[in-house]
Amino acid sequence: MTVEVGAKTEGKVTGITNFGAFVDLGEGQSGMVHISEVADGYVKDIHDVLSIGDTVKVLVLSEKDHKIALSIKQASDKPKPKYHSHRSHDRNDRKPQQHKPESFDDMMSGFMKESEERLSVIKKNTEGKRGGRGGRRS
Predict the structure, then answer these.
(1) Residues 76-99, buried b or exposed e (16+ Cβ, 10 A)?
(2) pLDDT tens digits, residue range 45-56?
(3) Residues 120, 122, 128: CA angle, nearest 5 degrees
(4) CATH classification code of 8-75
(5) Which end of the chain is more exposed for a tag (fewer CB within 10 A), N or C?
(6) How many CB atoms lie within 10 A of CB 122?
(7) Cα angle vertex 52, ends 47, 54, to 5°?
């Protein structure tokens, strides 16, 4: 039996490395779950989440040259959020959304203004750290 990409199946964890876990799928087939595909959140140490001998539900991501890529987090039946839970770091968050596209000149002047503001803050913060009054004392 060959595994099909997109199929969900169960397997047993047979080995754990720093970068992932190996899962026996039965019938002489095994695949690997990368550490980024183990859980929904960040996993620093895979041993905190998995142990050898655990039975896990996995989703087959790909199969190439008898190497099978698996995912535990994508095999769960939980609905995925429509947006990222953390605050976006997009620069457009600071400005209200505009309905008409800006011209290049408008974008350039906005960039220059923002750049000058940032430079003035940097200069203000580093000015006092360059020796200050009196210079060196002997």
Answers:
(1) eeeeeeeeeeeeeeeeeeeeeeee
(2) 999 999 999 999
(3) 105
(4) 2.40.50.140
(5) C
(6) 10
(7) 100
- The answer to whether 40 and 73 are in contact (CB under 8 A) is yes
Over residues 83-97, mean pLDDT: 53
Residues 94-110 have pLDDT tens digits of 555 555 677 888 888 88
- Which residue is listed with tokens 């039975």? 55
Phi, psi of 118 (to 5 degrees): -65, -40
Residue 24: both structure tokens together: 């026996």
Query: To which residue do tokens 């430079």 refer?
Result: 119
Q: CA gyration radius for the chain?
A: 26
CB 25 within 8 A of CB 8: no
What's the CA gap between 23 and 71, in Å, rounded? 10
